[in-house]
Amino acid sequence: MKTTPEHNKRVAEMKFFSVWPHYVTKVEKKGRTIEELYQVIEWLTGFNQKKIKEFIDEKITFQTFFERANLNPNAHLIKGVICGYRIEEIDNPLTKKARYLDKLIDELARGRKMEKILRE
How many domains does the chain have? Predict the structure, then answer.
């Protein structure tokens, strides 16, 4: 399934702060901690808890979020289907990065071991 230009635009303009509470709810509902959520995001982007909180306060878009990120060199190992899209087939770099994040959070919520999530 290929993403459309409209879909890619919607991902780029999505505000990180508006999605953050959903991430927190998703992982905590499944018995994981917010500290683990921060760990997963830091592994993918290089952003620590303080920086993530700054981004939430700034109300940045996903485009800005990923422009500022230093993506983990092992991010390409994140594979599978998320939100109806096979990550390996997404051609838009920003949308692919956003789906990497979605996939990691989904794996965390599903109880996957942290060393597997972090591709160690």
Answer: 1
Mean of per-residue pLDDT scores for the chain: 95
User: Nearest Cα to 70, choosing from 49, 47, 48, 52?
Assistant: 47
Q: 60: domain range?
A: 5-117
The domain that holds 30 is classified in CATH as 1.10.8.290
pTM of the model: 0.93
Spatial separation of the C-alpha atoms in residues 32 and 58, rounded to whole Å: 26
**Which pLDDT does position 83 carry in this prediction?**
81
- Label residues 26-43 b or e (16+ Cβ within 10 Å = b): bbeeeebeeebbbbbbbb
Indicate if the alpha-carbon torsion angle 17, 82, 9, 45 is positive or negative. positive
Cβ-Cβ contacts under 8 Å for 50 (sequence gap 6 or more):
none
Report residue 2 as tokens. Answer: 């290929």
The model's pLDDT over 53-105, given as tens digits with 9 standing for 90+, comes to 999 999 999 999 999 999 999 999 999 998 888 999 999 999 999 999 999 99
